[in-house]
Amino acid sequence: MLEEKISGIRAQLDAAIAEAKNPSDIEAIRVQYLGKKGLVTDLMKELKDVPNDQKKEYGQKINVIKKEAEDKIKEAIAAIAKKAEEELVNSAEQYDITMPVDFTGEGSYHPITLVQREVEEVFASMGFTIEDYLEIVDDYKCFEALNIPKHHPARDMQDTYYLDNGQLLKTHTSAAQNAIMRKYGAPLRAVFPGRCFRNENTDACHENTFFQMEGMMIDENISISNLIYFMKTMLSEVFKQDIKVRLRPGFFPFVEPGFELDISCLICGGEGCPSCKNSGWLELCPCGMIHPNVLKAGGIDTDKYTGFAFGLGLTRLAMMRYGIKDIRDLNSGNLKVLDQFKNI
Ligand code: DAH
After folding, report:
1. Within the chain, which residues score under 70 in pLDDT?
2. Which of 156, 222, 252 to mutate to test the pocket of ligand 1 (most atoms within 8 A of CB)?
3. Fewest C-beta atoms under 10 Å: which of 41, 169, 174, 212?
4. Is 311 in the pocket of ligand 1 (CB under 6 A)?
5. Which atom of ligand 1 is the closest one to the Cα of 173?
6. Ligand 1: which atom is nearest the Cα of residue 212?
């Protein structure tokens, strides 16, 4: 009796699914079979009238058909979605990549590219190599190798986009430190620009996608004086004026001691104005002496070598350099904004 009912339901369900054309047809089928008053659900209700010694077998058989119905419906939803996508692609207007473009204007470099190249040039002239690195990295590279273990509160500062496969979009260029140490060993001088990602709400000062330029110098007898010298030289070149810098203590797990590097305000020269909130200083670049744990993770002999690292906000630097007030203009692709950098 039950067997018959089940095979009846199965045949009916298969026929209904074969007929279904769109997601709402499938939803109707789901309700008809698995809904509160559905045919499969009704079988369950009959369970109470079944003699006790048959209840177990009866229940198992119903579970089988229930699972089967669920799977078939899931497959049908996927099949319909796939078909719809195929139809959409086939029906879309095909575009011809060989077609000449009606474009007479001249392109221009993006302001971030302009600043990036300037900074790269200055560091290259001081013996630094320029390195490229991945945008998708693993937890080890982005955090653990930088002395930020799992559950460390420093992770909260960087709201991270995790991918389904456990990897993540790098939240800072520091994620390349370990690979570059392992690639070259000590002594080492390298800068590495890169796109970084954090789950930020965007406003005039915040973006979920931004650029940094990281730098590292590792050698015998490297100290904070070296760090100050290189930063001051680079910034004075980029801003084409003598830039004063100062260091304030700052905490980052991958440096010890860590600092925030400020520069004298570009607008008032240090007198105090609204741009620098009357302090005469602008916060520009976190930096510090590389933590021994980070050097060790990179295979560097900490008895022999020390080093400094910095994480320059390239996006922020470009905004300061060109007086761009809204960070969102930079990723907007808006030619009205970007066109203005043509002659620079
Ligand atoms: N990676 C840090 C961030 O994005 C910035 C940073 C701080 C980089 C100190 C460094 C450093 O190399 O020494 O928040």
Report:
1. 92-97, 99, 101-104, 343-344
2. 252
3. 41
4. yes
5. 1
6. 4
Ligand 1 centroid–CA 62 distance in Å is: 59
Q: What is the 3 state secondary structure string of the chain?
A: CHHHHHHHHHHHHHHHHHHCCCHHHHHHHHHHHHCCCCHHHHHHHHHHHCCHHHHHHHHHHHHHHHHHHHHHHHHHHHHHHHHHHHHHHHHCCCCCCCCCCCCCCCCCCCHHHHHHHHHHHHHHHCCCEECCCCCEECHHHHCHHHCCCCCCHHHHHCCCCECCCCCEECCCHHHHHHHHHHHHCCCEEEEEEEEEECCCCCECCECCEEEEEEEEEEECCCCHHHHHHHHHHHHHHHHCCCCCEEEEECCCCCEEEEEEEEEECCCCCCCCCHHHCCCCEEEEEEEEEECHHHHHHCCCCCCCCEEEEEEEEHHHHHHHHHCCCCCHHHHCCCHHHHHHHCCC
Q: What is the pLDDT of residues 104-145, one digit of tens each?
A: 677 888 999 999 999 999 999 999 999 999 999 999 999 999
